Amino acid sequence: MSQPSHPLYETYKDQVSDDPLLEVFEAVDEAIAQILSKAPKDAQVVVFAAHGMGDNVMDLPSMVFLPELLYRFNFGKPALADGQLGAPPSQPITKGRVERGWIGAVWGLKHDANRLRSWLRQKLPNKLFRYIEPLFGKDQQPDLVSPFKLIEQGDSLFFQPAVWYRPFWSQMRAFALPSYSEGYIRINLKGREPAGMVDPSEYEALCDELSQLLYNLKDAHTGQPMVKQIVRTRQHPDQRDPKLPDADLVIIWQEEYVTDVVDSPELGRVGPVPYSRTGSHRSDGFLLAQGPEIEPGSSAPEGHALDLAPTVLSLMGASIPPHFEGRPLIETLILTK
């Protein structure tokens, strides 16, 4: 396997005889070679990826850790994946991950005062547990909404744990919105939300408090900070520009290492949680090009995904629409070589 840095490498390396990822790269190379062999000698050829790939460092922080931390921040108790702060982290959860699926495995970590029901939720197949769960009676207090209930309701975001907390959003000062990469926090602001509870005068202080809590969040394995940056999308709470994102705070996670368990000095440990996708996108892509006017071995300047379309149009000799924000990267080489 190609990623020995991933925490699951030791668990699964003996189950794979070859290197599947390398095989995919080699097959792509062969396909490109076949295309080039058929292309005219004076053809302009561009191969690019708008983004890169790497170990998946984002899914669990945004999908699981953030909504659970905000629940604990608001209610002072755990709802999912409660762990023992300060204890050595256990091995990654792999048992039941395939049989129950990632959703079932995570839902099995739901906090439950009834220990028998909690144990059965973790151990039984999803369909069997759903069959016997009504025998325990209906809880009087609001609870997380089951992803299987969301499936029955036709909710397309059933796989997003942030949505499982939706019954509590109206009671929370801030809650997490469904997300894959960056984390999104929405403030339950009076005058903006149907059940707003945060006065605009408290908005900045709450953003400060949440930011500090998240900057204190650590990977339980290494003790390294989980948050790289927190972006505030509004300069003041009354900004209602429809072009602004739904989130008031955007959490940019670190991208150096993968973790399945995090520690908050104020809110406790979340995890371990079974990994979802082992790989995820990265912001760094690439562009390779060859053509009669491109000097072999030359380098294009560093660019942005927005530069891809102008680059291709330039090589085609087509005009670039004035509303395009990018610039043609290859044209820079042609003009300066």
Features of this protein?
single chain; 337 residues; alpha+beta; Alkaline Phosphatase, subunit A; 4-stranded antiparallel beta sheet; 11 helices; 31% helix; globular
Structure description:
- The chain is α+β, with helices and mostly antiparallel strands and 337 residues long.
- It has 2 domains: 9-55 and 282-336, Alkaline Phosphatase, subunit A; 59-276, no CATH class.
- It contains 11 helices and 12 strands.
- The strands form 4 sheets. The chain has a 4-stranded antiparallel sheet, with helices on one face. A 4-stranded antiparallel sheet has the order 4-5-8-7, covered by helices on one side. A two-stranded antiparallel sheet has the order 1-12.
- Strand 4 (174-177) and strand 5 form a beta hairpin.
- The radius of gyration is 24 Å and the shape is globular.
- The mean pLDDT is 88.
Summarize the structure.
This protein is an alpha+beta fold and 337 residues long. The protein has eleven helices and twelve strands.
Helix content: 25-40%
Write down the Rg.
Answer: 24 Å
Largest sheet: 4 strands, antiparallel
SSE string, helix = H, strand = E?
Answer: HHEEHEHHHHHEEHEEEEEEEHH
Measure the end-to-end span: 41 Å
Number of domains: 2
Number of strands: 12
Please specify the SSE layout and strand pairing.
Elements: H1 9-12, H2 20-38, E1 45-49, E2 52-55, H3 59-75, E3 82-83, H4 97-107, H5 115-123, H6 126-132, H7 147-152, H8 161-164, E4 174-177, E5 183-187, H9 203-215, E6 218-219, E7 227-232, E8 249-253, E9 262-264, E10 268-270, E11 279-282, E12 286-290, H10 308-315, H11 329-336
